[in-house]
Design brief:
Structural class: alpha/beta
CATH class: Alpha Beta
Radius of gyration: 19 Å
Helix content: 25-40%
Distance between the termini: 59 Å
Number of helices: 4
Number of strands: 4
Shape: elongated
Oligomer: single chain
Strand content: 15-25%
Largest sheet: 4 strands, parallel
Amino acid sequence: MQVSIVSMEKPKLAPVARVSVVLYVRTTHWSYVEAFLREVRRYAECRHWDVAAAFADTHLPDVLDDRPGWREAQELVTVRRAAGIVTRYRSMAVSEYEYPQLEHWLAEQGAFLTCTRQGDLAGAS
């Protein structure tokens, strides 16, 4: 008769990495920046996400590439220091016209965009 020995030890699991995100807000006036960033930071922290950095643009160029804060947020995602971007409304980050390009970029990066307020999230991933 053959006897099999079965280990009763629990398998060792690899630690789960925390999600790192960039906070981004855009507003017409600098006086709103602190409150808006506080809101998106709270949203990220409630999900136990690490905040890699926070950026704000207080001028309103329509083109994403013309916004220094947005460019810095994208760079952190591109170099894999962040897995996503958290903002208040999708329209703070991108216009409806530019959204398909942003979706494509996010897919290429394996990243996400999420919003603290769901008012203009139709079609967001």
